[in-house]
Amino acid sequence: MQQFGNISLLLTLFSIDVANALFSRLGLHIPDVQYKEICAKMCIRQSTHKDRGTTGTSWQRYERIYQCGCGTDHTEGGKHPKRNRQIAWPDLGCPCWIRLITMQGKTNTDTIVAILGISGVLTHSDACISKTDLENKPRFPLHPDVRNYALSLLRERAPISMVRAQCKKFAEARWGAAMGNIEFRYRLATHDSSSLYRSAAAEIGVPQRSKPEENLYAWFGPTPTPPTPEFTKSCLHYQPHISASENAPEQRFELVLATPQMQKAAWTYGHKKLVHMDLTFGVCSARTLLAILMTSNPRGKGIPIAFIMFTARKSAKAVHADYDTAILTRLLEKFKQGMGVNELLEVFDIGVGVVDLDPREHSSLRTNWDLIFLLWCIFHVWQAWRNALNKYLLSIPKGDARQEVRKRLVGLLIPLMRDVIVYDEACRLYNDEITYFTAQVSKQRSVISRKQGTAGLSFLAYFKRYVKSYADWLPWSPAGPIKAAEILGVAPSDVPRTNNPLESFNGHIKGTYFLPYLHSGRLPRVDVWILLIITKVMPTFFADIDDKAAMMDY
To answer: Is-above-0.90 flag for pTM?
Structure first.
């Protein structure tokens, strides 16, 4: 007998030989130590291991639960019941199960140091003993070397189709045309992809069968246990989803993320400078909306400085529209608070904001930064005008008559957006068109002429909201960039008038950046999306910027 911590280990060679003989009699096997027969009835259902002894010990204590296949039914009950029975032996209600505890080498798992215990129901039922024919074809496990090679390809973000092709070449180079041996198969089966994806997900810290809300709470909750310290540094605000009850309404899931690199970029390039803002959806499988704040470096490269994510309410039918000014205002405030202060004890400030036409975004930004000057993205402005033209000119029959009115109105819109920098001049041009179309309606002309005048006035009534005051005209007019340039201390030509950098990033974040991590094109879970943003996407994004800067300097 030799004492090891609190456990007595019997290390005589005779006892190990006796144990091996008992394993053979009971039909048990230990991975890496003994060969498992494909048709064996006893299979491992659960396995755990822990280091034992002092720090740096080379021993591990393994506890394995074995169960007879004739007493296992995986089509009913359990967390993940199967639709069809996949076990080779029929379910005969056999009660046999065994708990085996061993001490093995930590690095050389094929070395058994001691057998610490064997317990359970060691005998099979009579029906099980008499059953010698398989009910289903046995499943051969994938060869460990092929599996490890497939996982290495997944770590390099190879698509599953490429993984299958490369693994086939790997197997042919090593074993020729053989499909397998009596213990393993050499080719990937269809169901292997699920197992490989689960293993790859577990490696990055997201067990595939775990619940996203549980992982998020573990990473960002009151006592966080994140996969890396970067999670805690990147979280500026977190609120778990809480379902509605009789005494309290539903609380959305909320998360404000800014990695340390993003926070540094925010203070360097965004503080008291220009910041883009836009909302999007469809980035993950959950019903979430994502607001992104972005600034630009001196080379003009758009750099995201915050991801503001929140879920739509369960009662909402349209996810993309389930938000209001209040939630945007509160989450922007959380971002502002989370950024803290700089070395001059200044809170994070935005000088100029570039936004689309959503008044909820406008109000939330002005509430948090009362001196901010907003520029409207002229792409969204023109898109709204184009849609309005299509709507209000619909009453004119298709053809030259409609095209004539469209050309005249476009002749008003283009100079207003591109050339006119004086508000009074803009009002004069608008009033001239009012006079023209009013004359068309009032004069006794043809029906087509009256329809043209009525449609033109209808569009101009809609357009009045853009010129009814100086404050409504300035954000989209050419005078807007001039004022923004004065605030930022740059040339007007250096002030962007669109959200194109942010729209481009939205496209990348839904495609390019996450494409290698998609499973057969399916969107990632929300917890996987967040993990990849922190550990993969943003570090790679900033590394690419540094590489391009180094290349330009070179």
So the answer is: no
